[in-house]
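## retry 2 of 3
previous attempt timed out at serialization; input unchanged, resubmitting
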Amino acid sequence: MSMTTAARPHPGVDPSEARGLSRGLLLLMSVATGLIVAGNYFAQPLLDAIRGNFGLSTSTAALIVTAAQAGYALGLFLLLPLADLFERRRLAVTLFGATAFFLLACGIAGNGVVLLAATALAAFTSVAAQVLVTFAVALSTPERRGRVVGTVMSGLLVGGLLARTVAGLLSEVGGWRTVYWVGAAALAVVTAALWRSLPAVHAPVGLSYPALLRSTAGLLRTNSVLRRRAGLGALSMASFTLFWTGVTFLLAGPDYRWSEATIGLFGLVGIAGTVATPLSGRLADRGQVHRVAGAGAVLLVVAWLLLAAGASSLPALIAGAIVLTVGQQALLNSNQNVLYGLAPELRNRLNSAFMTAFFLGGAAGSALTAIAWNRAGWLGVGVAGGVLATATVLLWAADRTLDRATRE
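## retry succeeded, writing output
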């Protein structure tokens, strides 16, 4: 079957109304997004084991995380706009199946180069998570949009954080390859569930694929709100990824000497930070998106002040990780809520442009980790994170000022 508009819409489904989005379907979409993005983070607690297995340097091993972020960013730009061209259920399921295959390839990789390539490809197709995000938004009413985005994105964030915990535990039991095998199998099951549960929704826009890509790039040139929100997203994600990549080396190093399983359990700390997501979603629905973003940006700075003491204080490290997650999630929810309200017919392309910048920021953050760690250890990571967090606050203040000036 092709990914054209051959499939019939699900009976009774109006893509612009909430009637097609039951609680069960929203839960499935949230779980599915979490599972598919988890593969992009499996390597983080396993870097030391992978480095030893393939004889890689610390900086080379860190490139696995960079490859995942860069592959995801590329997929967001090249694949996500297809949701405006093809039937969305079939597109999502196809990408989910491809990701399962590439995760399996990661598990059987014979050297670092193959693992790097398979990781990038799995990340490239895992943008199916974002297809589900805009899918859920299309099935929701405007007054529920913030909560729907918050629910699905919570699944995505929890998946990324829980992936570290599960990866560490599975690696301890069966080696790092087991992590990818189990991930591929779980993703195959979810793929089948999505095919059975998602309604078929057509979104033809009358544009060719090249025209869609030009339109997506053009939005960054012509839409100042998108540019500022993309900048906020890129800076915050760079700060977030910098921490979660660097903390692996800190916890495995002489200051803590933790095992892979214990390092993986540290991911549970970040999950605690997602409890604030429903609150940020409700505030966004009440028109408080700018305040939510500002609070999130300030929390990033507070987090890095706590994390600066992380090399000698586990409580500071835990508190900083929680605050960092709360701030990051608040910013992300605010950014997406603003963008989804700009033009419903452009949601996939707006999300594509925003999330491409977002994960390019993540790729830059993971690459910066290797540089900062090699030069000054955890101190270097802390300084870099603090600079990124401060830049996020400054950009938010500029965005707020420009928004007020525009309204006046």
